[in-house]
Amino acid sequence: MPRLAIIADDLTGANDTGVQFAKYGLRTYVVLDALQNPILPEEADVVVFDTDSRASTASQAFDKVAVVAEVLRNKQVPMVYKKVDSTLRGNLGSEIDAVLDVLDYECAAVVPAFPAIGRITAGGYHLLNQIPLACSEIARDPKAPVTDSRLVEVLKQQSKYAVGHIGLQEIITGSDAVCQAIGQAISQGHRLIAFDATEQIHLVTIAQAIKECGKKIVMVGSAGLAEVLPQIYNMPACNENSEVKVQGKPALIVSGSVSSVTASQVNAFVKQPNTQLIEVNGQELLNHSAKEIKRCIDEAAIALRQGRHVAVVSSNRADAVAESRQAGEVLGMNSIEVSDHIARHLGLIAADLVRVGVEGLFLTGGDTAVSVCRALGTSSMRVQGEVAPGIPFGYLHTGPFAGLKVVTKAGAFGHEEVIMQSLDVMLNQQGVNL
Fold this sequence. Notes:
The protein is an alpha/beta fold. The protein has two domains: 4-232, Rossmann fold, CATH 3.40.50.10840; 252-428, Molybdenum Cofactor Biosythetic Enzyme, Chain A. The chain is 42% helix and 20% strand. The chain contains 15 helices and 18 strands. The protein has helices at 11-22, 58-75, 92-102, 151-158, 168-173, 175-187, 200-212, 223-232, 260-270, 282-287, 289-305, 318-330, 335-356, 366-375, 418-428; strands spanning 4-8, 28-31, 46-50, 80-83, 107-111, 119-122, 125-128, 131-132, 163-166, 192-195, 217-221, 252-255, 275-280, 309-314, 360-364, 380-388, 391-396, 405-409. The chain has a 15-stranded mixed β-sheet, sandwiched between helices. A three-stranded antiparallel β-sheet has the order 6-7-8, with no helix packed on it. Helix 6 packs across helix 7 and helix 11 (289-305) packs parallel to helix 13. The longest helix is centred in the last third of the chain and has 22 residues, at 335-356. It starts with a strand and ends in a 6-residue tail after the last helix.
């Protein structure tokens, strides 16, 4: 029986939260397609379920999370963590509602801050690198834009339950003050309680207060809050030996993210020797899919066989994005359907290239990561460690390519050299017996 189950709304989020436990030695598995196959690996300490619900409607997201929560209730998993995006994208309110409706929790403590990567909450406002969300590129996210920087208001708009707020004054006073504030919020009928947090120590204080306050509270947060839980809840690591399986093949980078952060990371990658960029033309992918897929596979396969690391990316240039959307409109597709179409075909391209032979995958963008994994026939991943804060490293756990090394990264964060740093990890990391 796993000690902890995590419910996440996309794959990169599932991985970057799971890795917070894996790096303490806890056996951590990520389950894709959680609705069709909500497995609980017997050997797991931590299981992360990806409901793939970030871009779903609110009612669809509720239903997806409720299905997984029901499995966890029936299996009597002792502790559940609801993972949400550190930039508030997705259906936070309806997914939290589903957990509260199915599982026996008095309330939800909502702590999306992740100070280590520039996501903080202060005075109820959520900021990305000191910029309110509504003024950042998250407000222009093509699938899940966030246009209100106020955490409490975002939750009120999405949840059927009353929402309270605990600010920095209580948190910096200490866990006893937070315990008292939690009790007061519950007595006032608040089922969701939003927390400020601007430093890592604030997350520790909040987690400690939740543990000590004597209330049954489900923790809701990003990878930031998850990172402090192994120590707060004394989750001892297992002892497990690994076997070296270093092959020294080139790596494959696949990006479907339109984030400017990811674009700068790809640009830094292609400036390095022994690399090759394959830019997928979204317009051509819509109008002449087979031809564009073949072009990309043929060009990338040549580079891989020559020992070059290859990045297959969908262009994030404004003109290219506009052309793709216009091509989609002609075909009767909205912008979300266009993004899904591109992500799905990036998965097909990647699957063919993996068969050419690669040491590992660097996948950025949640939809892209899921599409690649599905195309490779894997239903779960094992998270092993961390390349950088919020950027996990692991292996495909099931399917014909089990054991293949994988790094996943959400689109909008990470330093400029993160792709090259990830390649170093993949090329030098020990493998495991799966």
